Amino acid sequence: MAKSLQNLTTLLLITLTILSFISLSTAHDYSFSKDLSAEKELNHKKQKLTHLHFYFHDVVSGPNATALRVAQAATTNVSAVSFGYVAVLDDPLTVGPEPSSKKIGSAQGMYISTSQSDLQLQLVVNYVFTEGIYNGSTLSILGHNAILTPLRELPIVGGTGVFRFATGYAHLTTYMFNLTSLDAIVEYNVYVLHY
């Protein structure tokens, strides 16, 4: 009887040891991802396409500049197209091309002159909307802007708020460009897919 009790105790200890190893291995799930249903988890019903039309006012001159140079190439490397120029911007977005037109948001970010031979910018900017159903929502644009080309296309790479999960593109057309001050007004037609 003592031997069978000893065997039972040994079997019980082995079983408890195995169970504790199993519970330790399953106690912590260190998975960093899981699949979700957008419809179920995020209340996303149907993707929609929205067209936005507005004007971007880039003022680089005068006391009320909305875009400021924060870096530039060393003086020995200065080119006719300002290669290496970096500007930070907080440009108004308006319904119409007039500076006094109703403001609907701001373009906040930076642009960098990335060509040694042409006026081309790398644009890294968030469009922060302040009007209507888009108030508090943003669109993020990251792309190449050949500013002397009549029609440019830049990608929408994301968004927040109403524009969460946004993708799309923006067509840019220069409405006005002052060769003396370098101030510009750019017309935007944005086509964005979002939920």
From TrEMBL:
Compartment annotation: Secreted, Extracellular space, Apoplast
Top-level taxon of origin: Eukaryota
InterPro entries associated with the record: Allene_oxi_cyc_Dirigent, Dirigent
Keywords: Apoplast, Secreted, Signal
Keyword Cytoplasm attributed: no
GO BP annotation list: phenylpropanoid biosynthetic process
GO cellular component, as recorded: apoplast
Gene3D superfamilies per the UniProt record, alphabetical: Allene oxide cyclase-like
Family: Belongs to the plant dirigent protein family.
Oligomeric form and interacting partners: Homodimer.
PANTHER family cross-referenced by the UniProt entry: NUCLEOPORIN-RELATED (PTHR21495)
Protein name in the entry: Dirigent protein
